[in-house]
Amino acid sequence: MSMDANNLLVVDQDDDFVAKAKELFDGRLPVARSIEEASSTVESGGVRMVLLGPSYNGEDAMDQIRSLHNQDPGLILMLIAEEVTADVLRQGMRAGVSDVIEAPLDEAKIEAAIEQFAHDVLKRKVVTPTGEPARDKGGRIITIMSAKGGSGKTVLATNTALLLSRVADKKVVLVDADLQFGDVCLVLQLEPRFTMVNASHELHHLDGELLDSLLTEHPSGLKVLAAPLEPAFADDITTAGLMQMLDVLKENYDYVVVDTASMLDELILSLIEKSDDILMLVDMDMPSVKNAKLALETLRLLKFSTSNVRLVMNRSNSKAKLDNKEIEGALKMQIAAAIPSDAMVAASVNEGRPVVETDPKSKVAKGFESVAELIAGKIPEHTAKSGLFGRK
Ligand SMILES: Nc1ncnc2c1ncn2[C@@H]1O[C@H](COP(=O)(O)OP(=O)(O)OP(=O)(O)O)[C@@H](O)[C@H]1O
Ligand SMILES: [Mg+2]
Questions:
Q1: N or C: which end of the chain has fewer CB within 10 A?
Q2: At 20, is the pLDDT very low, low, confident or very high (cuts 50, 70, 90)?
Q3: Looking at ligand 1, which residue's alpha carbon is closest to its atom 19?
Q4: Please, which residues have CB less than 5 A from ligand 2, an ion?
Q5: Out of 33-37, 90-94, 139-143, which region has the weakest mean confidence (pLDDT)?
């Protein structure tokens, strides 16, 4: 991306700051003294990046920044802060800011910011503000993601949710956020009467009771919020709507497990922002590791914290076994759990009977258990909610 001073716009109320910024570009830099003025400059075209000065660091300025972002979501907004704190970063992200640069501003910093965004395909995928920050009161949201399709997310999500529902006094709901091709219900042999499409039509008065009536119950007691039944209905589900459903579920459930599609899109970014735990599933092959690396780097670039991401390896005993240390080095993250490969898994998917129920002693089931234990500590043994020897 080539960018010159004409594509930039500096906005601040402080004379000193504006004067110094102009100096950097020999006085050729367009400036605005208020967001309103910036907004009309943007309106007239040509502006690609807006540098918001320290006047706009406070929480009360975020609404104004957001209005600028909404006016043109493709605009790259950079906030210049006296001090880059976690709060400024978080508030900035919510308002649509792409990055926060520490004051004082200099040419190198502006150039670095432009560079970073020039090669970043995701530069325009700024997360839409979605309300409450993660990790507030209520249950835990556990999102299962992978950077490559078919890596076993749905198998992991269903088995982990079943294991978590064994923990005494814990209520668990599994949300199928693979909006187009969700198959949680298929894998659990459930026929939903309602799906999240119904919930999406009731958002204005959605509460715990109403949402509960739209869930589907598995014989084990696990509840499921089903994905749309047809890909075309996926359009009915907005990111904000789904986030609202999760907020409601969180109030009544201890664990909200979310299965996703393998896409690094606005939905997954919002889910990551909202989740307490993220299980990043990686298959034991090169393309999977490569994609996981790209996904993690993108998250880091977008200033998402990866501290609550746990790495889970699938098919860890496969023939093309990669070296664990190499994977950890490439992903800059420790492997937290591993699930071996077993033909039994494919059969369990076809029959709609998860292995943690049919073969709780198998190595695969133990693998799923090690994942559930990352979330909930020791998982009780499979007892006869559905027959001593598994569901028949
Ligand atoms: N540990 C395993 N051992 C053997 N087979 C496995 C294992 N994990 C997953 N599979 C097989 O891989 C296939 C894909 O798994 P799954 O549907 O869970 O992947 P996914 O990541 O949800 O895929 P998608 O991206 O399409 O949603 C399944 O049919 C299953 O049989
Ligand atoms: Mg799936």
A1: C
A2: confident
A3: 152
A4: 153-154
A5: 90-94
Q: Which residues contact 129 (CB under 8 A, 6 or more apart)?
A: 66, 94, 95, 96
Please provide the DSSP assignment of 125-158 as one string: -PPPP-SSPSS-SSSEEEEEE-SSTTSSHHHHHH
Give the residue range(s) of CATH 3.40.50.300 domains in the chain: 140-386
Decide if domain 5-124 falls under CATH 3.40.1000.70.
Answer: no
Instruction: Give yes or no for residue 287 having a pLDDT over 90.
Output: no
Q: With a 6 A CB cut-off, is 310 part of the ligand 1 pocket? A: no
3-state secondary structure 74-101: CCEEEEEECCCCHHHHHHHHHHCCCEEE
**Spacing, Cα 150 to ligand 2 middle (Å):** 7
Query: Of the candidates 365, 297, 298, which has an alpha carbon nearest to the alpha carbon of residue 337?
Result: 365
Residue nearest to atom 10 of ligand 1 (CA): 152
Residue 314 CB less than 6 A away from ligand 1? yes
Residue 351 zone, left/alpha/beta (φ > 0; ψ -120 to 50; rest): alpha
**What is the number of helices (H) and of strands (E) in the chain?**
16, 13
Cβ(153) to ligand 1 under 6 A? Answer: yes
Q: Atom 15 (ligand 1): residue with closest C-alpha? A: 152
pLDDT tens digit sequence for 289-334: 999 999 998 888 887 888 899 999 999 887 766 888 989 999 999 9
Smallest CA separation from ligand 1 atom 23, residue: 150
**107 Cβ partners below 8 Å, 6+ apart?**
24
Instruction: Identify the DSSP state of 264.
Output: -
The pLDDT mean for the chain works out to 87
Ligand 1 proximity of 288 Cβ (cutoff 6 Å): no
- Protein residue with least CA distance to atom 2, ligand 1: 341
Architecture of domain 140-386: 3-Layer(aba) Sandwich (3.40)
What gap in Å lies between CA 99 and CA 79, rounded to an integer?
Answer: 6
Q: Where in the chain is the domain with CATH 3.40.50.2300?
A: 5-124
| Cβ count near 367 (within 10 Å) | 26
Q: Number of C-alpha atoms within 13 angstroms, CB side, residue 263?
A: 12
| Distance from residue 349's CA to the centre of ligand 1 (Å) | 8
For ligand 1, mutation pick of 155, 321, 341 (most atoms within 8 Å of CB):
155
Cα–ligand 2 centroid distance for 159 (angstroms): 13
